[in-house]
Amino acid sequence: MNKTEWPLWEIFIRSQHGLAHKHVGSLHAADAEMAMHNARDVYTRRNEGVSLWVVRSSDITASSPGEKDLMFEPANNKVYRHPTFYEVPEEVKHI
Amino acid sequence: MVHDNALFQYLLRLGDNCLIMGQRLSEWCGHGPVLEEDLALTNVALDLIGQARLWLSYAAHVEGGARDEDQLAFLRDAGDFHNVLLVEQPNGNFADTIARQFYFDTWYYFLLLDLQRSANPRVAEIAEKSVKEVAYHVRRSADWVVRLGDGTDESHAKMQAAIDQLWSYTGELFASDGMDEALQQQKVTFDPAKLRAPWVDHVASVLDEATLRLPEQTWMQRGGREGVHSEHLGYLLAEMQFLQRAYPGAHW
Predict the structure, then answer these.
(1) How far apart are CA B110 and CA B36, in angstroms?
(2) Nearest residue on chain A to B140, alpha-carbon basis
(3) Is residue A67 part of a domain?
(4) Structural domain count, chain A
(5) Predicted pLDDT at B1
(6) If exposure means fewest CB atoms within 10 Å of the residue's CB, which of A80, B96, B99, B213 is most exposed?
(7) What is the C-alpha to C-alpha distance for residues A62 and A54, in angstroms, rounded to an integer?
(8) Segments forming the whole domain that contains residue A54
(9) Of B40, B143, B147, which is closest to A41 when you measure between CB atoms?
(10) CATH superfamily of B5-212+225-246
(11) Does residue A23 lie within any of the structural domains?
(12) Tens digit of each residue's pLDDT (9 = 90 or more) over A20-61
């Protein structure tokens, strides 16, 4: 018997009050339609969301952990990029 | 004291279909072909057991309150169960389970669409709540019939065998008796024979897409609704009812 695994899919859910889809996990499925059904059954059993995205894991290009310094170190020592140097007037809310 | 025996019996039929189908599906728990499918099958089982509770608790109310939903589920013997024979058939292989589910979901979906118009408001409410879940079940089981039918040679052969094997249990879905007719006159229920045309249409179109043959007309099994069951039901009840039989009144 052919034991080939179905491809892996990454599942993203937008929750009731969330604005953006959030990665929740992965699962196996033969195609996008099955991935959608499986995502519904595996990840939305407790009222987790109102919208689902399924993406084939192989379609995701990820940054390499080995290149962490090259990628992220330059942003680490530039505090002036954080908006902490501005004085926020009293009247301005929600910043 | 039973207020309305016809309604009580009808609710038992609906509740027992859901309960026995749910119990059968839950036997897949931990045995599904893949983790995702294991969860999906048990989700459907839980949906159906939830619906069984709605039908049976209303049945208990109509009966007059002498028994509750749990006593109806766990303390009746096979002869007092009124589910159709289809739902008590064993799980078999995955294709057998899918064929049984496909026939059942399709029928139950069209039935619930009708029952939403019931003159009995409680029946209409339960139907309206249930049809949302069952709409998903119908899509899922049809999807699997197509995948397996239009899959490998082996999956095609198994799916066709399952479709053929269970066909003779589908006639009972559309039968009615004197009790049904009384309820139909009150517009509580509708003629089940009228569900046959949309059911056959849907089944035929899915089978066509799945490259499977619609089975030939044949002699149809019946009896479940009247309490005459296949031997399988006794074993199913023995497992399902064990706890309440061995430890009466046990709860958590």
Answers:
(1) 27
(2) A37
(3) no
(4) 1
(5) 45
(6) A80
(7) 16
(8) 8-61
(9) B40
(10) Ferritin, core subunit, four-helix bundle (1.20.1260.10)
(11) yes
(12) 999 999 999 999 999 999 999 999 988 888 999 999 999 999
